[in-house]
Amino acid sequence: MSPLLIYVLLSIVKIVVVLVILLMCVAYTVLLERKVVGRIQNRFGPSRVGPFGLLQPLADGLKLFLKEDIMPASVYRPLYILAPIIALACALLSIAVIPFGANIQFHGVDMFQIADLNIGLLVILGVTSIGVYGIALSGWSSNNKYSLLGSLRSSAQMVSYELALGLSLIGVVIRAESLSLRKIVDSQSAHGILSWNVFGGFQIVAFFIYLIAAYAETNRAPFDLVEAESELTGGYHTEYSSMKFAMFFMAEYANMITVGCVATLLFFGGWTSPFGNLLPTPHNIVIQALLPVFWFVLKVFFFVFLYIWVRGTTPRFRYDQLMGFGWKFLIPLAIANIVVAALIYAPR
Amino acid sequence: MYLVIFFIFGALCIGGALNLLLQRHPINSALSLIVVMTSLAVLYLLLGAEFLAAAQVIVYSGAIMVLFTFVIMLLNAGEEERTRGSRAAYLVGFPGVAALLGLLTCIFLSVRTPLGNAQLGGGTLVTTADLSRVLFRDLLLPFEVTSVLILVAILGAVALARKES
User: Which residues in A206-236 are b (16+ Cβ under 10 Å) and which e?
Assistant: First the structure.
């Protein structure tokens, strides 16, 4: 076979495998959330379908798939259909630039990353900023007051917090001197946990700014004013049913996982081990390749768990508090952080 | 390969631009404009300007057009109406556009060499580091002056929007 054909085939295999794993993770994150929030509220969560309720995502998926797809009479059809597609496509797109493990080549193809771009970080930011349209258009095209209010809130919130989010990443970029996600991880790989950006890179403030802004970007509690049930019934997806609703749902959880991946890559050393060179390098080549992936998955799992934990414990912001916090506190803090990071790394 | 991508996104760009003009509803026009800007970003990428492409998506498609759609949604703007003025625009507009297009083509073809040769895919990659070297070293003063200008514009907007107390 010609090298080009091998390259194309391997890339397709890679994309399919990553997407299947991502969608499985999405399904089981939903279950994890129901279980953990259940425990936080002193109840069991789903426990009837399969052992420990492990088949619940399958049952939920089947239910959503078989439900009647209701299209209200007064919606603006093209955009009503387009909106969930935009939301889900953007949520799945950003996983393409995320490296899951060390750069191991197989027939000249990087095994643990779909595409290594020089501007990987900017691609993620760009895709996130396009993702706003999914929510904005769904609210407008539904022709429903609650939906419109929800999507207006969401657009304003996402535009505001995007600034703080982008600014918080600059310290990391200054340290790595690159926007490539692999190079950013490489810059933190010297001494295990001590050289991770969150500790050794002096980016702990940036990390918390990123985390807060990312929670607001993904419209999760305590920033879930977009779908605040007590005031807006369902928010932007009030009029959606069946698979279209499921697409918004999947997009939200896929975004959570992406945020977990980006936080891991930028602040927690990506796939590098927290013990640095203290652990002996395993001799088996397969374990050597998969151990970094294990560390990566563990860190991402921590962030997904944190998402659920925060959702289970914090009350919702009021809208003016949300805007004030974003513009008057997070953005000035992020700018101050850039100045400090520049001063630290300028002498190099 | 590059040529195929160029034709796909070039066609998408022109199609989006035409759709922008032909659609009666403002939100459809705004969405067509997003298509135009995003396909422009792909064209930049084909020419090797990766940072410019990302900035185009983040700033234009992501931030500015969100504000456009935001305003359209808030005002709940309806379909545009045809007036005598808009009919006259057809008569003046098409010859005007044709003349402008001819003029621009003429100028670009005659001053080809000083503009430099951009090539599809084969050209040199303008990395983020190259761009920032030009922006923050060679052109530092114009860059900073522009940012002051933008700051003044923001202050002006705040002063205009402030309520009389």
Answer: bbbbbbbbbbbbbbbbbbbbbbbeeebbbbb
Which range of residues forms the domain containing residue B20? 1-80+118-126
Contact yes or no for B127 and A118 at CB 8 A:
yes
In a domain, B99, yes or no: no
Same structural domain, B75 and B143: no
pTM higher than the cut 0.80: yes
Q: Do B62 and A137 touch (CB under 8 A)?
A: no
What DSSP element (H or E) covers B91?
helix B84-110
* pLDDT tens track, chain A, 348 positions: 788 888 888 888 888 988 999 988 898 898 888 888 888 888 888 888 878 888 888 888 888 888 888 888 888 888 888 888 988 999 888 888 888 877 777 777 777 888 888 888 888 888 888 888 888 888 888 888 888 888 888 888 888 888 889 898 888 888 888 888 888 888 888 777 777 877 877 788 888 999 999 998 888 878 877 776 777 777 777 778 778 888 888 888 999 999 999 999 888 888 888 787 777 777 777 777 788 888 889 999 999 999 899 988 888 888 888 888 888 999 999 999 999 888 888 777
Size of interface A-B (CB pairs under 8 A): 72
As for how many domains chain B has, the answer is 2
Closest CA–CA distance from residue A50 to any residue of chain B (Å): 43
CATH number of residue B61's parent domain = 1.20.120.1200
C-beta atoms surrounding B28 within 10 Å: 18
What is the amino acid identity at position A35? K
Structure-derived torsion over alpha carbons of residues A278, A283, A287, A289, reported in degrees to the nearest 10: 80
- Distance (Å) from the alpha carbon of B88 to chain A's nearest alpha carbon: 31
Residue B105 in any domain: the answer is no
Q: How far off is chain A from B33, nearest CA to CA, in Å?
A: 13
**Is the residue at B137 inside a domain?**
yes
